[in-house]
Amino acid sequence: MERENFGSKIGAILAAAGSAVGLGNIWRFPIETGRNGGAAFILVYIGCIILLGMPIMMSEFLIGRHTQSNTARAYQKLAPGTPWKWVGRLGVFTGFFILSYYAVVAGWTVEYALLALGNQFQGMTTKEEYERVFTDFSSDPVWPIVWLIVFILLTHFVIVRGVARGIERWSKVLMPLLFIIVAVLVVCSVSMPGAGSGVEFLLRPDFSKVTGKVVLNAMGQAFYSLSLGMGCLCTYASYFDRKTNLAKTTLQVCIIDTLIALMAGFIIFPAAAAANYGLAPQDIGPNLIFITLPNVFQHAFGAVPALAYVFSAMFYLLLIVAALTSTISMHEVVTSYMSEEFNLKRSRSALIETTLSIVLGIFCALSFGKLADWRLLDMTIFDIFDWTASNICLPVGGMFIALFTGWYLDRQLFRDEITNGGTVRAPYFKVLIFVLRYITPLLILAIILSNFGLF
Ligand code: PHE
User: Fold this and answer.
1) Mind listing the pLDDT tens digit for each residue in 17-56?
2) Segments in 275-392 forming alpha helices (H)
3) Phi, psi of 376 (to 5 degrees)
4) pLDDT tens profile 397-454
5) CB of 397 sitting under 6 A from ligand 1
6) Cβ atoms of residues 213 and 336 within 8 Å
């Protein structure tokens, strides 16, 4: 079977950036920043992107591009007859898990976009009202499931069109759209009267707030946000052509991802400050974008209802776009694995993944209502999926990827791949190998141990 490639350099970059930019940037990053003290956390986070994110991203890119295969086959080709293939398989399994619960939240963004478009938030003033809307909706046995299915089908629709006509084409439309919406929202937000203290929170570091836990949270966020550790970027890189400069692409994707995350911060904190909502940044929790933010928007633009309307509608539209380019990448990991390993047609393997994710996703969606009592160690099904995937599977996957390229992979092959056979320079080569061998795996080990309270 002829394997497809991304048709253009910019298409490849936007697809990889589309995977990275998602709910992790716009929803999770501001929450983590708020909880971990603002500017100082951001600096630590950027350090993690450089030390942890970039080396692993390079590794995933080079494994994928060299082997031109799905993530499990990639390891089989590079390390035949060894257990390394399990790193790839773990990635496929993680992709399947993450898609199922991520699509639940993505489905909520559809509901909220419709609420915003229908001007349903107008006139609501108290926090309790917003809380009720969210609780009633998320615990409903029907609508969250409907939106979950719609979202996965949307993803499915792009995936079955293939790599160039589906993933690449849609990324080229959706990513610029996303960037424009984010930029407009930042300008609106920071220019509101009273936004200053929110801006200051993001710019004036207070290093006394940096504890070990803050560093660990920053590392976890870097992982999640860059889509690392599950072979997502490895799969996308298998569609890169031989001329793609891997180091440059890594840099570009990391810059875009970090920029969008920072911009999300500059939407949320200044708006919250301007709204004079009494929202202490450190109080910001996971409900932020569904309970607090619609309220903040109404308060901030209280004097001009039309602006509140446009701002909210654009914000939820933005979330849908960001989430979609990420769910596409998770779906692709599983689809390409099944189609290549079991010799299935792409459409058939996509259909299997879509069906399985919907079934699993329904359980996650119901864990906010009917199945809220199904708990293990006090975690609901949704929490278990989220916790296991982001705190265990991604870091473990990432650690093994670093060990694989740092210790196992042939040095010459490594060098040839990142220099495109000697045509681009790689003066950083020795440093990169050192970081991959010692720094990255040890840092990740620290994250994992901390998740078990052992650190
Ligand atoms: N990086 C995505 C985000 O920020 C989430 C993601 C994780 C996507 C792992 C793919 C793989 O939302």
Assistant:
1) 999 999 999 888 988 898 888 899 999 999 999 999 999 9
2) 293-300, 305-341, 346-366, 381-387
3) -130, 125
4) 999 999 999 999 999 999 999 999 989 998 999 999 999 999 999 988 987 787 676 6
5) no
6) no
249 close to ligand 1 (CB < 6 Angstrom): no
At residue 236 the predicted structure's pLDDT band, cuts being 50, 70 and 90, is very high
**Residue of 5, 24, 20, 49 lying closest to 233 (CA atoms):** 20
Please tell me the distance between residue 76's alpha carbon and the centre of ligand 1 in angstroms. Answer: 25
Quote the ligand 1 centre to 24 CA distance (angstroms): 6
DSSP code at position 231? S
Best substitution site from 27, 93, 326, 335 to test ligand 1's pocket, by max atoms within 8 Å of Cβ?
Answer: 326
Angle formed by the axes of helices 293-300 and 85-117, nearest 10°? 40
CB-CB contact of 53 with 254 (8 Å) = yes
Task: Please report, to the nearest 10 degrees, the dihedral formed by the alpha carbons of residues 430, 433, 438, 441 taken in order.
Answer: 150
Atom index in ligand 1 nearest the CA of residue 20 equals 1
Backbone torsions φ then ψ of 357, nearest 5 degrees:
-65, -35
Round to whole Å and give the CA distance between 189 and 242.
Answer: 43
- Whether 35 contacts 282, CB under 8 Å: yes
CB of 406 sitting under 6 A from ligand 1: no
Task: Kindly state if the Cβ of 64 falls inside 6 Å of ligand 1.
Answer: no
CB 201 within 8 A of CB 38: yes
Going by C-alpha positions, the residue among 16, 62, 76 that lies closest to residue 421 is: 62
- The DSSP code for 453 is T
